[in-house]
Amino acid sequence: MRFTLPPAPGFGSDCALWVAEVAALTQPDRVVWYYDTPDERAALLAQSVTEGKLTKLDSDLRPGSYLARSDAADVARVESRTFICSESESDAGPTNNWRDPISMRAELAARFAGAMRGRTMFVVPFSMGVAHSPLARFGLQITDSAYAALSMGVMTRVSREVRTRIDDGANWVPTVHSVGAPLTADTADTNWPSNTDKYIAHFPETREVWSYGSGYGGNALLAKKCFALRIASVLGRDEGWLAEHMLLVRLTSPEGRPFHIAAAFPSACGKTNLSMLQPTLPGWTVETLGDDIVWMKPGGDGRMWAINPEAGFFGVAPGTGPGTNPVATSMIERDTIFTNVALTPESDVWWEGLSPAPAALTDWQGQPWQPGTDRPAAHPNSRFTVSAGACPLIAEEYFSGRAVPLDAILFGGRRASTTPLAFEAYNWDHGVFMGATMASEQTAAAEGTVGRVRRDPFAMLPFCGYNMTDYWEHWLKISEQLDPDRAPRIFQVNWFRRGENGDFLWPGFGDNARVLAWICRRVAGYVPASPTPIGMLPTLDDLHVHGLNLTDEAQDQLLAVNDAEWAAETASIREWFDGFDGHVPPRVLEQLEQLEHRLAAVHEPGATARARH
Ligand code: SAT
Ligand code: MN
Fold first, then answer.
1. Mind listing the pLDDT tens digit for each residue in 271-306?
2. For a 10 Å CB count at each end of the chain, is N or C smaller?
3. Structural domain for 287, as ranges
4. Based on the number of CB atoms within 10 Å of its own CB, is 59 exposed (0-12), middle (13-18) or buried (19 or more)?
5. Are residues 481 and 563 in the same domain?
């Protein structure tokens, strides 16, 4: 027997018909529409506890909270099994895994056929952004994972209203998820069903997502990376906006002037901490708008307007504690779903960096653990899932859905060397070049070797749903709709530079406010910056570092532009650009040439010592 995936429903189509077709293919025992009402949620949580898929945490220590433990082989996004199935291979580009959509549909049809047997198929209608906002987009996620349905209820705005709007003809994105573990009469269910065979497949032309075999994070919560970044980046390309892997914050200066900053960092590089930062500079306040995804669009006024399309945080637990992120620590005191953290004997959660290790724990795999055990108690990519409304610093826009005008865009990553603490691009094109050439040491958020430096343009390497060089072209083109005097200014930051002994040179966390405040003062025109070959640098004085007790080495190195490192950097960028077969936009190439030129010029007679540093 041959199976086919149901055709993607078109604009204004009947979603019930499509749901029936997916059910006919996947053959669940039952189909349940899930609107995440308090009653539905309570019932699904209780059922998950009964089935052993969630552990209820102690009601006094962690009210309304649960722990999920994943299969040990299903702990992060699987980039090697993430596919962009555009009609033409060149539309996926060299940084994506391309598959021909026709053969992928056939492959997926075979996997999805009967995949939900013995299980419940949940149909979850959701909105990205507050439903009435002009920037909002709708979707349906079909899933056979209660954990995914419950998590979608936190991470997106799930409601019956969305279904009504879809039934009334609103456009929507269809997404289908199966853990790929059908139940038969003689197979017992496990606490985390999944399949070693995995597919995270995107069809940009028909705007569909099909995900098979994994229950974890971005593989399973299809509204997040799959829809809000990969599919949305394609929508943005076609409609003149941008879907970005960025946090969003509002800083208000002591004089009361608000500044809106979006910042792109690769996964697990501190976006959640930065979005909830507690400034150590007196008078400055922070409000949180988002920690992972920003949709932005030029307005008629020549400014760039932004929203966070998500409704919750799926944050990395290890390293989150009262010292590093007191705001998040209090936000997850209740009503949180934890995944792959450790369990205390009192039925509370624990992870590295939360507090001193308790004497005895159950680790993320359910094994006994004591301090000194040679493996971490919590998986390095263990997570908390919590409503953004629980964040004490959440901005009013979370409720109103209003967009905010961006003043600055930051690009950052983890670089032990080369990249100074902060510098500003000379202009939009230079900023696009900075974004395009971002590099970072790999983290545990995806499979791969942790620590290896890889180029991660705009922190979008795993998330751009089309050709990376077309995406850079789109960034260049979007500036035509911006007023140069009102467009966001672009900066690069690196909190992770290390000294000779391997220690971080910069304290980070709340002290990052010193860098953000400098950025705001640049935007306001209050402070000069020194031109160097790589961009406009602050001085340590401009960053108000007095009182930080920086080491001599830190004072010397934090803002240093090292000739040898930058020679190696430009050579590595050139080599990397060569991998794009001549498709790097000329305006981006020109920025590389200008950078090489500026670096060479500092060696000419008369060049300033400051620029050479
Ligand atoms: O993609 S996830 O949502 O699992 C986490 C991340 O990589 O940012
Ligand atoms: Mn992310």
1. 999 999 999 999 999 999 999 999 999 999 999 999
2. N
3. 243-312+399-609
4. exposed
5. yes
